[in-house]
Every structure is written in C-alpha cells, then in structure tokens.
C-alpha cells in the first residue's frame, strides 16, 4: 500500500497517466471520425440506391401507367432476397395498390420511417413521391445493415481503445520505472553523501542522456565540495599544528617558571577553546555520520549520571537519574556522552547549591533540569551561539562553547533541542 | 627502558626526550618516518613514541608497517589533531595508546610507563592483585584490607582494579576516564577527583592512593 502511494507520487506515475490520457483522447478522436464518416457514407449509398429505384419506377409509370408501376414493384419485391427493400403504391383513396408496406404517411421527400418487421426498432430510409391523380409512391430501404456496420465499428473502436490503454500503461510503466530507477539510485548516492561519505559519486555513463548529464554535474559539485572540505580540514590542521604546537611549547616554558601559574592557566584556556572550536567544526562537518552505530541511550545516561553524582554531591546537590531502558538511536556514542556530560555539568554549575539536578531518559526524549535561576525566555535562543554567555555567568569558568557543542551534536543526530522553564530552573529537552 | 621517539618538531622532541631522560629512560630520537621504521625494526626498544604527522612516512604508516612485520613493541601515538576519527584510526593501525597534543609531560610519562613491560605479578592473567595488606580477588570479586571485607560499587571496583593493575605507577586523570569510564573528553568538573576521594574513604587508613600534584594518582604501600 505504501509502495503504491510512493509510486503515485513519482514522475513516472504522472508521465504514465498523461500518456494514457493522450492516447485515449487520440484513439477516441480517430474512432469518432471514422465512425461518423463511415456511417454517413453508408447512408448516402442507400439514399443513392433509393433515388435510382425511384427513377426507374417513375419511368415505368410514365410508360405503362399505374398497372405497369405496380407490376414493376411486385417484380422488385419478388427479386429482393434480403428483405431490405420496401415499397408502397397507394391510390387516390389511400388504399394500397401494390407494395409490401401496409401504410405510410403520404409525405413527399425524404423520411425515416419505423418498419413493422420481426426485427425490433428497425428504421428505414424512405423517399415519397406524389404521382398524378393523387396516387403516392414510397420507396424505402432498411437501415439495419448501416446499424450493423456502426455496431461493428464501435466494437472495433473498443478493442483498439483497450489495446491502446494497455500499451500506454505498459509504455508508461516501462518509461516511468526507468526514470524512477535512475532517480532512486541518485537519491541513494546523495543520501550516502549526506551521511558524510563524501567520496560517493553518482553513476554517469559516457555520452548518455539528461540523467547522465545531471549526474556529471552533481559529481562535479561534489568534487568541489570535497575539495572545499579538504581545504577547510587543512586549515583546521594548520591551526591545530601551527598554533597549538607553539602554544604547547609556551605552556611548557611557563610551567617550568616560578609564579607563572596564572599564565599557564590562561594558556590552557586558549588551548581548550581551540580544542572545542575544532571539535565543533568536526561535528558540524557531518563526517562523523559515517561512523554512526546503534547507541544504547540508557547506558550513556547511566554512565554520565554515575560519573557526575559525586561531583554534584560536592556542591551539596543531589543528581537524580530516571532512566527508561531499551531506547536506542543511531549515533556516535562518544559525542552523545559528551553532549550529555556538558548539559549535566551546566546543570550542576548553574543549579542551586543544595538543590537537585534531574537527568531523565523518557520515551523519545532526554531532559536535564536544574533548580537554579534558569534562563529568561527571550535569552534562550542565544545560549547556543558560540562564545555566548549570559551576563550572570561571566564570572564563572567556562569557554562559552559547551552549549554550542551540545547544539552541534544534537543537530548531527537530528535531535530537537528546547529550553523550558523548570519553575524554578532550566530544563533542556532533547527529543527525537 | 629504551624508548624510540619519532617526532619531527625539534622543540617538542627535545622536551619529550628531556622528560623521559629525567625519568631514567634511554631515549633515541629520529625526526623522519622512514628512519623511524628502520630503527624500530632494528629492535631493542621497549616502547615507541610516534608522532602522527611525519615527513617521509607518517605515523600511521609506520605503525602499520611495523605490525605487518610482526613487531609488537608497544606504541604510543602523538597527534596535533584532536579529531575523533584520529584516535580510532591510530588504534586501528596498531597503536596501543593515543595522546592528542597538547599534552602535559607527566601525562606522557604516565602513559609510557603504563605501556612498558608489566611486572610478572601484575600480568593480565593474575587473579589476585595485592598492594600492602589490600587484596583484590578478581575471581571471587572481593576486596579485603588486612582481612576486613570492603564493599565496593561496580564502578569503584573498576577504578580500584585499574589503579591496582598499575600499582606503583602513575595513572593520570584522563587514563582513568578512558580506562574506567570509557570517556575520551576532558570534563570541566573535577569528577575523577571526587570518585577517587570516595574510594579512598572506603579503603581506610593509612592512605594507599597517593595524589601526585599535576600528574595523577598512584596506589602503593604507604612506606614505599
């Protein structure tokens, strides 16, 4: 059912539908015109035969009078094996003199008249002529052969139409499936790229159709993107190597000097910021997706809770962990652990001394709550920015990058992050 | 111990060589990957300290080639890139430990010591670990001090086991985080300190776990 619904949403399906509609329209037009022309031609043929009969009979009347005419009519009726010819010669009193019709309206000119034969709803085409001395001649031909022809035409049109529908459907499916298959293979390849497998390329046959040309364009774009990412990586490496190495040496020098503890601490802070920035950049690049594996969140939560419980206790706080078991997501265990550790660290740092820090793993959500001053609603969007620190926490240690990393890791895993009022305090909710 | 140091940055190499030499080790230093590989194959070293980014042959290639040649000398890989993939790549290539730069020299010393040959009693297959009158039975999962049973939480057990397996040597904060909690980042809160002090309190007096300022912890008999 789902596959059907997906199929209904594809270009292939729409192309098939359009193809089908156009084919049907074409077949109907062709059949209609053919029907109309053939049927008209057949009626005209019959009319011509009637005119010829009338001519011959009038000639007989002119030469031999009414008796000769009656004789001619009887002879014609006798010769008509198919029983499709009708005649009536009526006298001045309206009574039948000759013919095989009981009666007919005395109307000159062309008329369609119902015939009272064994066949139902048979109609004949008739031509009436007034004769001298109030006599009346009617010559008619049954239209049944024309109706039969029409029925045959309709039947043929039905067969042709049916075949056209099948052909259109088959062709559409074939074309659609080809298109769908190409699109699906492109989609699969790009999904791999999205997961961080940057070396993935679309298949493009040399020469090829518009899909191959599109694939080549996408591949060229990916090449460029990969180059850019490599360049970015190179810059990061350069920063890492060319700035951190001398900083490390500086730190080592300072370490060996008396009374330089503050300078060493400042060096450590700079090194920490570098490390955090590089880590955030790495997370945001999405390269870690390639290493995603199922992560048991209860284990991650339990580890973090267990790790931080004594630290919370040092501040007189209680760390309460409420963990539902059996929840697993695709992800990077190390990053998820670090994300959660950052949140718990924040909660311990900003929570009320002697208060409670709550870590909960519920159905499709992790929450970390403290009972400290919280964050005003209008400032909540800002805290995930790099280096953003609320005025109140400027005096406490920290790089201002902890929540930026949390946001980056959450985004990498497709977790929605919201800040809520825990009344009092702040509750961070990560949902998926 | 005889230690081979393969590091291209002269100043860093000098610092490391000085620190290792100061701890009583014999250090050979080369600055090039290919040369490092030759030296390492030449043998006689108990620990290798290899930088990841090297001219000639990079650290990963060096260790891979070494392992392919069947040489199992413990190797510590250094790297200036703190990236998450790097550690996995380093360990996959056959390195035994991994240390991102910048690192404190005591951290390097502690990790080099941990990689060095273990005393026979501390072999991984030992079933009872002992420090002074503290005894840890790995099979019966009991800890006693002078015959007195001490009850430990699972994590406290792992913490004590890690310390006792490295008895007499320095273990750093990050070694404990990695070895006990499998955590590879540096928490800003002093979590390890609080765990160690709780364990200390359970083990009682006199204190067997010593804190070495700026370096880490070591468990050893109080008189040693």
UniProtKB/TrEMBL annotation, chain A:
Its EC number is 2.7.13.3. Residues 238-432 form the Histidine kinase domain. GO terms for cellular component: plasma membrane. Residues 177-230 form the HAMP domain. GO terms for molecular function: phosphorelay sensor kinase activity. It catalyses: ATP + protein L-histidine = ADP + protein N-phospho-L-histidine. It is found in: Membrane. It is an enzyme of class 2 (transferase). The chain crosses the membrane at residues 153-176. Keywords: Kinase, Membrane, Phosphoprotein, Transferase, Transmembrane, Transmembrane helix, Two-component regulatory system. This is histidine kinase. It comes from Falsiroseomonas stagni DSM 19981.
Automatic annotation (TrEMBL), chain B:
Residues 126-221 form the OmpR/PhoB-type domain. Residues 2-116 form the Response regulatory domain. The keyword Zinc does not apply. GO terms for molecular function: phosphorelay response regulator activity; transcription cis-regulatory region binding. One of its GO terms (cellular component) is cytosol. It holds the Pfam family Trans_reg_C. Residues 126-221 bind DNA. Keywords: DNA-binding, Phosphoprotein, Transcription, Transcription regulation, Two-component regulatory system. The modification 4-aspartylphosphate is found at residue 51. InterPro entries: CheY-like_superfamily (IPR011006), OmpR/PhoB-type_DNA-bd (IPR001867), Sig_transdc_resp-reg_receiver (IPR001789), WalR-like (IPR039420), WH-like_DNA-bd_sf (IPR036388). SUPFAM superfamilies: CheY-like (SSF52172). One of its GO terms (biological process) is regulation of DNA-templated transcription. PANTHER family: REGULATOR OF RPOS, TWO-COMPONENT RESPONSE REGULATOR. This is DNA-binding response regulator, OmpR family, contains REC and winged-helix (WHTH) domain. It comes from Falsiroseomonas stagni DSM 19981.
